[in-house]
Amino acid sequence: MVLAAAGILDSKLVTRAATGRKLLVLRVPGRNISILHGEQVGLIISLILAGNYVTEDIVTVLTDHLNSVRLIDDSWTSVSQVPRLHYMNGRSYYRWILSLVNCRHVAINYTASHSGGLSCEARMNDEADFLVTSSQKLISELSQSPILTFFMHKNLFEKEISVYGAC
């Protein structure tokens, strides 16, 4: 995150990357963003790049954001996650993540960050971190992440019907 010590009204900028067969780096600008939004956008990028595969092969998506992995795992249970999402920071991003997970044949696996390990997972995490860090020098040339109006909380205007979009 650039300008992590910025004040409430100061602009901030988070960069996120996904790497693998395809890679993408996006910037997330705004005044009310945090590193959480960067983690969420990184996972969204990975899920989009994973595609909408209908094959029997499961695409594995790695993330170092344990809270996201736990929420995704909990979403596969019979317990509704709607009340949980209602008060969570980054809930619009989480709604998008859960919508993407429901439309894809993916496994979301947690991998520890900055472990210095030599496993494939550790090296992939290091590569994503390198892409994010080196891309901050080219901030003006990066594409901007979409603003999440399409997964905003619907209870503000009407009764919430579903938190998940159609596949």
Please give a structural write-up.
This protein is of the alpha/beta class and 167 residues long. It has a single domain, classed as Ribonuclease H-like superfamily/Ribonuclease H (Nucleotidyltransferase, domain 5, 2-Layer Sandwich), CATH 3.30.420.10. Helix content is 36%, strand content 16%. The chain is built from five helices and five strands; from the N terminus they run ββαβαααβαβ. The strands form two sheets. A three-stranded mixed beta sheet has the order 1-2-5. Helix 1 packs parallel to helix 4 and helix 2 packs across helix 4. The protein is globular and about 40 Å long. The two termini are 32 Å apart. Mean pLDDT is 77; it is low at 156-166.
Q: Largest sheet, order of strands side by side?
A: 1-2-5
Query: How many DSSP H or I helices?
Result: 5
Which topology does CATH recognise? Nucleotidyltransferase, domain 5
Tell me the number of structural domains.
1
